[in-house]
Design brief:
Length: about 140
């Protein structure tokens, strides 16, 4: 759960960690609930609006979560939002750049192997967070 631009967002998973759906609660710059996303860009909530949204979010969090504990999820991507989990960064699956030296190619391949062996992953929430297998963020 989190606040993402003009919406409070809750991503739901089943007991096996498979993505089920994303629930969105939209709000205006004043923090009032709306039925549809506000398309105004840039979106700048007022100070009071931010407070209203934060209080609503905390209430929704209390209402939604029975317990707060770590979970394991499978790879997923939320349609129309930059929210996802992937087993590796996109650049690992892109073709190698032309002109890399043997040392650069070996270094890149070693980094890819290290990443996969460590079971690190990428979590996206409007930006990418590189995470260790235990969920701690090590860079973004």
């Amino acid at each position: 759960m989190g606040i993402d631009l003009s919406a409070m967002v809750c991503v739901l998973f089943d007991a096996e960690g498979r993505y089920l759906r994303c629930i969105e609660r939209f709000f205006s710059v004043s923090g009032e609930e709306t039925d549809v996303p506000v398309k105004t860009r840039p979106f700048h909530p007022t100070s009071q609006g931010k407070e209203v949204v934060q209080k609503r979010f905390e209430a929704w969090l209390d209402e939604t979560l029975a317990t707060e504990e770590p979970i394991t999820v499978q790879e997923f991507s939320v349609p129309n939002r930059f929210i996802a989990v992937a087993s590796e960064p996109e650049h690992f699956t892109e073709p190698p750049l032309d002109g890399l030296s043997e040392a650069e190619t070996a270094s890149s391949e070693a980094e890819t192997r290290r990443w996969r062996q460590a079971r690190d992953f990428v979590f996206w929430w409007n930006e990418d967070y590189y995470c260790r297998a235990d969920g701690t963020v090590h860079s973004h």
